[in-house]
Amino acid sequence: MRSDYSGPQLTALVALRFAIGWHFFYEGVSKAANAYWTSAGYLDQSQGFLSEWFVDLASNPSTLAVVDAMNVWGLILVGLGLMLGGLTRTATFFGIVMLFLYYVATPPWPGFVYSIPAEGAYMIINKTLIELCALFVTLFFSTGHIVGLDRLVRILRTGNAVQESNA
């Protein structure tokens, strides 16, 4: 697919997509590799407008097992999609949903105090929200159709490596 992006623009967008993908993938694999990992402590700490729902999820062991599996595999699959540029828009959308849920589960709002460790002192905006915003930006640039498996699938489907514009 022909791109109207300059080389540096495309490189920056793909690097951003890949870096976020790596973060998702690494978090998923590290959770999967830890037999003792569970989201229960995170969900139990929830404050804000959806806190009752998050705490309820953590209180039921069978529901928690499903939530944990969805979290681990969601992180891995979104990460792979973003890194490889496959199903990029779908991966981006679900990445945004996951980050939104993480953010509203333990928002860094004034007056909220958590026993789980925080990486810094924030007021409203934290690293999760920044990553969500960065992923939101990548949603509007189909870099997977230019650099990624999405491009390969399109070429195999149409037999044409060059198309008009990705507008």
Task: Using brief descriptors, characterize the structure shown.
single chain; 167 residues; mainly alpha; 63% helix; disordered C terminus
Structure characterization notes:
The chain has 167 residues and is mostly helical. The protein has one domain. 63% of the residues lie in helices and 0% in strands. It contains seven helices and no strands. Helix 1 crosses helix 6, helix 4 packs across helix 5 and helix 5 runs antiparallel to helix 6. The longest helix has 27 residues. It starts with 6 loop residues before the first helix and ends in a 9-residue tail after the last helix. The C terminus is likely disordered.
Secondary structure topology:
Blueprint: H1 7-33, H2 40-44, H3 51-59, H4 61-84, H5 88-105, H6 127-139, H7 149-158
Helix pairs in contact: 1-4, 1-6, 4-5, 5-6
Mean pLDDT: 90
Which shape, going by the Cα principal axes? globular
**Count of helix runs:** 7
Query: Level of helix content?
Result: 55-70%
Summarize, please.
With 167 residues, this protein is an all-alpha fold.
